[in-house]
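Bumping with the actual sequence this time:
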Amino acid sequence: MTTPRLKAAVAALPSCSPGVVPVPPQGRMIIPDYYLEGSHGPVNPAHATAEAPYVAMWKAVARAATRYVATGDSAEAVCLLSILGAWADAGALLNYTHEESRQAWFTVQWATAAAALALSVARGAPEVDPAQLDTVTAWLVKVAGHQLSQLPPNPGPGVTSARNNHAHWRGLMAAAVGVVADKDELFRRGLKAFVEAVANLDENGAWPLEMERHERALHYQSFALQPLILIAELAKRQQIDLYAVEPHGRSIHDAVHFLLRAIDDPTLTTHYTPEPQDRDSLKPGSAGHAWAEFYDRRFPGKGAAVLLTAPLFNSWLGGGATVYAAPAH
């Protein structure tokens, strides 16, 4: 923790407390849709209340993982595992179907990816209980398997969540759980999701399904990038270079470059949608740009640094991207 930016990245993160474990909800997992109607527009106020217990969990484990990496304090890793152990013992994230609650299905992919990514950086702490670690990894495999099983086997064109950013997030969930549980089939499913996502880019580097989101089109271009960059980083650790993959002559770099250009030039999205873009989540330093920490470290000088005006933390990506992407020191 030698630079001011790294120190700032953990300064506001509270220590994990084993006595304050986010309680897993009981009963059927029913979460209202995020939007009141369709895929954009006003947000449903009931959504945040229903999702709050899951948010508490993924924020807690992401903070603990970040503090463990930053400080080396094994108590953070032990506390992280105790949280996930409680959720595993409760059989959380399993009591739902896609038909009952589409949003619950989405929430599970984010919660599972967050838990697996946080666990991936903390599981090596010397005080971690191997038996509890085995219990948690077995639970994550079960949760990921159930989530993936809810996808219709032959989804038609109307099931956009089979191909849009949700497919990317399912891929990250699968890859991250595959890593922590040593399940190659899950890991490979994540790689496949990455390749399919890049293959879906158009000639400008945009994802057509995300460009259909009206005033949120550019937000969702960025949102779709988040899990893919993390899949590429997980693959790099296995000596697999997804950054170089070019189905149809396009790569993940094209998606990054389109986003960066469109943030600077609002006219680029008018080709897809006439609405002015909601730019709040696109401001430099926004948590949604946490992927840029990894991308800029991997490809300095490619423009992503403009997004890194503050230390970035994103629970869905495992926590403190600024800390995780920092050079070894």
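The tokens above came from a reply further down the thread. The longest helix spans residues 45-71.
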